[in-house]
Amino acid sequence: MELIAPGATWLATLIPENLSAITGADDKAKDGKDAKKADQSAGKRRVIQDLMAPRPKSGDNKDPDGYSKKERQQMERLNEIVKDR
Known about the structure:
By secondary structure, this protein is an all-alpha fold.
Protein backbone atom coordinates (compact mmCIF):
# COMPACT_ATOMS: atom_id res chain seq x y z
CA MET A 1 0.00 0.00 0.00
CA GLU A 2 2.94 2.27 0.59
CA LEU A 3 3.67 2.44 -3.13
CA ILE A 4 0.13 2.16 -4.48
CA ALA A 5 -1.24 5.47 -3.14
CA PRO A 6 1.66 7.63 -4.40
CA GLY A 7 1.65 5.72 -7.69
CA ALA A 8 -2.09 6.32 -8.13
CA THR A 9 -1.64 10.00 -7.36
CA TRP A 10 1.21 10.25 -9.85
CA LEU A 11 -0.84 8.49 -12.54
CA ALA A 12 -3.77 10.84 -11.88
CA THR A 13 -1.48 13.81 -12.54
CA LEU A 14 -0.79 12.43 -16.02
CA ILE A 15 -4.45 12.64 -17.03
CA PRO A 16 -5.05 15.87 -18.96
CA GLU A 17 -7.42 18.42 -17.44
CA ASN A 18 -9.41 18.58 -20.69
CA LEU A 19 -9.88 14.81 -21.00
CA SER A 20 -13.61 15.15 -21.60
CA ALA A 21 -12.90 17.59 -24.43
CA ILE A 22 -10.43 15.16 -25.96
CA THR A 23 -12.67 12.12 -25.68
CA GLY A 24 -15.86 14.02 -26.45
CA ALA A 25 -17.62 12.80 -23.33
CA ASP A 26 -19.52 16.08 -22.99
CA ASP A 27 -20.58 16.40 -26.64
CA LYS A 28 -24.30 16.37 -27.35
CA ALA A 29 -25.60 16.06 -30.91
CA LYS A 30 -28.25 18.82 -31.05
CA ASP A 31 -28.03 19.94 -34.65
CA GLY A 32 -25.90 19.35 -37.73
CA LYS A 33 -22.80 21.08 -36.36
CA ASP A 34 -23.00 19.24 -33.08
CA ALA A 35 -23.63 15.96 -34.89
CA LYS A 36 -20.49 16.45 -36.97
CA LYS A 37 -18.54 17.32 -33.84
CA ALA A 38 -19.94 14.23 -32.12
CA ASP A 39 -18.84 12.04 -35.04
CA GLN A 40 -15.34 13.49 -34.84
CA SER A 41 -15.20 13.02 -31.10
CA ALA A 42 -16.47 9.45 -31.47
CA GLY A 43 -13.52 8.80 -33.76
CA LYS A 44 -11.13 10.33 -31.23
CA ARG A 45 -12.74 8.31 -28.47
CA ARG A 46 -12.30 5.12 -30.51
CA VAL A 47 -8.62 5.92 -31.11
CA ILE A 48 -8.03 6.55 -27.41
CA GLN A 49 -9.81 3.32 -26.47
CA ASP A 50 -7.74 1.40 -29.02
CA LEU A 51 -4.58 2.83 -27.48
CA MET A 52 -5.68 1.98 -23.95
CA ALA A 53 -6.96 -1.52 -24.77
CA PRO A 54 -5.59 -2.74 -28.09
CA ARG A 55 -7.36 -5.61 -29.81
CA PRO A 56 -5.28 -8.70 -30.43
CA LYS A 57 -4.07 -9.09 -33.98
CA SER A 58 -6.05 -11.80 -35.62
CA GLY A 59 -4.23 -13.83 -38.14
CA ASP A 60 -5.23 -16.90 -39.97
CA ASN A 61 -2.78 -19.10 -38.18
CA LYS A 62 -2.88 -22.30 -40.17
CA ASP A 63 -0.24 -23.92 -37.99
CA PRO A 64 -1.80 -26.73 -36.00
CA ASP A 65 -1.60 -26.69 -32.24
CA GLY A 66 1.23 -28.80 -30.93
CA TYR A 67 4.11 -30.42 -32.71
CA SER A 68 4.12 -31.86 -36.18
CA LYS A 69 4.88 -35.54 -36.77
CA LYS A 70 8.42 -34.73 -37.88
CA GLU A 71 9.09 -32.51 -34.85
CA ARG A 72 7.74 -35.19 -32.51
CA GLN A 73 10.02 -37.83 -34.07
CA GLN A 74 13.03 -35.54 -33.70
CA MET A 75 12.25 -34.91 -30.03
CA GLU A 76 11.76 -38.62 -29.37
CA ARG A 77 15.08 -39.35 -31.06
CA LEU A 78 16.77 -36.67 -28.92
CA ASN A 79 15.21 -38.13 -25.77
CA GLU A 80 16.54 -41.58 -26.65
CA ILE A 81 20.06 -40.18 -27.21
CA VAL A 82 20.00 -38.34 -23.89
CA LYS A 83 18.58 -41.38 -22.08
CA ASP A 84 21.38 -43.62 -23.40
CA ARG A 85 24.15 -41.37 -22.05
